[in-house]
Design goal:
Number of helices: 4
Number of domains: 2
Mean pLDDT: 78
Low-confidence stretches: none
Order of helices and strands: HHEEHH
Strand content: 5-15%
Distance between the termini: 133 Å
């Protein structure tokens, strides 16, 4: 391990702690070493063999903590994004439901006023039909067929 590697690990430790990927300095140091590739992580798997014994296998996985933390970070970001989209959809649906209810109320109100207007119009029409037109004394009781138009107006030589 040379000075450049130590400086790189120290810088990675600071960044990991700054971004919340590591809570303590030893944890940050371990993750930084895994990223740099100096101390790969060991995974131990236990399997049962045919004789009833247990076989132990050790596999080294470099940078698995970083990959795991990145996957968790991406999953959190995607879940927050999806939750936000669902919330906007819920808000939109509730706003549309309120608009439909308002339109139903206005339609019902309009139908009620329309029925009242129709009743008032029918009452006024009945009262207008009941009135009989009385002849005016200046106009007389002339009908259109009583007077010939050619006698009233001059159209020139005939």
């Amino acid at each position: 391990m040379n000075v450049n590697d130590v400086a790189k690990i120290n810088e990675l430790m600071k960044n990991l702690q700054k971004h919340g990927m590591a809570t303590t300095a030893p944890d940050a140091f371990q993750q930084a070493q895994e990223i740099v590739g100096e101390a790969p992580k060991k995974v131990v798997t236990l399997t049962q063999n045919e004789k009833g014994g247990i076989d132990v296998e050790t596999v080294q996985v470099p940078g698995s903590a970083l990959i795991e933390s990145r996957v968790n970070l991406l999953l959190d970001m995607n879940s927050k994004k999806i939750d936000g989209q669902f919330q906007t959809m819920r808000d939109t649906i509730s706003a549309l439901a309120m608009e439909i209810e308002r339109m139903k109320f206005e339609l019902k109100k309009f139908q009620d006023t329309k029925a009242k207007v129709v009743q008032v119009v029918q009452e006024t029409q009945k009262s207008l039909k009941a009135e009989e037109k009385q002849p005016h004394p200046r106009q007389g009781n002339f009908q259109p067929g009583d007077v010939a138009i050619d006698k009233m107006f001059y159209f020139g030589h005939k």
